[in-house]
Amino acid sequence: MDFTTIFRPEVRQFIKENIHKDLTKLLLSNSPFEDISMQQIAQQIKGCRIAEKKFPFLLKEGIVFPPQLNLEQSSSQATAIFKASLFGGESLLDLTCGYGIDAYYLSENFKATTLVEQNRELLDIVKHNWSILNKTHVLYLHQEISFFLQNNTERFSLIYLDPARRDMHNHKKFLLKDLSPDIINIGDELLKFSDKILIKLSPLMDISMLISQVKAISYIYIIAVKNEVKELLIVIDKAYDDELSLRVCNLQSNDPDLEIPYSALHASVASYGEVSSYLYIPNNALLKSGAFNFISEYFQLEKLHPNTQLYTSNHKIENFPGRVLKIVSTDAKAIKKGERFNIIAKNYPLTPEQIKKKYKIKDGGNQYLIFTQSRQRKLILKSI
């Protein structure tokens, strides 16, 4: 694929001049260049905008961006760096290269990397970009995964996959059997070529379903960035003979990681009580784990209600993976019109928006109002 046309000085200058312009209007106008369409120019502008927030290491002269869907499906720089912190060895195989963000960082810890991608144009873009970034010892293969697996004779230290979660009509898929490749069917074949496999999955996947359908899982990582759950990672390790664990991680936050033995999810017993001096709100990665009773038992906290994932204690825990608020009980009469609060509603009949409207309060400020309930009564709590 020839990228020289979009790197001509006049084209690069046009992109820079229009980097913050309305893309819809831009696409309705004619390209000032005979050999480059406005769609191609807009693709590079959109890529720069996404890269600025998602993978800023690519904001270098000469980098080419693929269509928007490929950018949206790519991992962020933050989650790719996290993956790279987990593995290293002689050789890496990425069977679903895509735009190559994960492979780029994972490859830092391997002596040789093999990238397999069925989209020729996308692989050409990755090859071009990695040359700009001075990546070496990389084999680029434009192949179907099935063809590669049938013909491969090498073994790898790690195999990485990010199965496609959309069908040919761009509809999202949430069952393992609907992903491409189908990791259930090819799992045994993958283990012929590596003892370790890392698979990235949607955060909407059901963890219990994963465990029941995928063999030899050693770890499941629940990865959030700034409290937004972004992905699940499952590690398949042929040599692992210990208990399966969940690892909860909230990147770009001060929350500590937490490791949870899977058996503890079912064996733990929660304690219940009325609200005390401190309120504990688990981060979203921890909530995704489903370890609601474990939180109570492990941190020695009392749960307010079986259906409310809020916890309380008379003492403050410094290393809790979530928000800790010192609180007092209040009532509706004490809420003054026009006051500013951050509103939290958990297991409560009104939404935050409905609460703001009912009590005529504004969003924001440094204090929290929490509307919830214990097993005994409805509660309004205020942070102090």
Automatic annotation (TrEMBL):
Pfam families: Cons_hypoth95, PG_1098_Fer, Thump_like. The keyword Transferase applies. One of its GO terms (molecular function) is methyltransferase activity. Residues 278-321 form the PG-1098 ferredoxin-like domain. The keyword Repressor does not apply. One of its GO terms (biological process) is methylation. It comes from the Bacteria. Residues 323-376 form the THUMP-like domain. Keywords: Methyltransferase, Transferase. This is Methyltransferase.
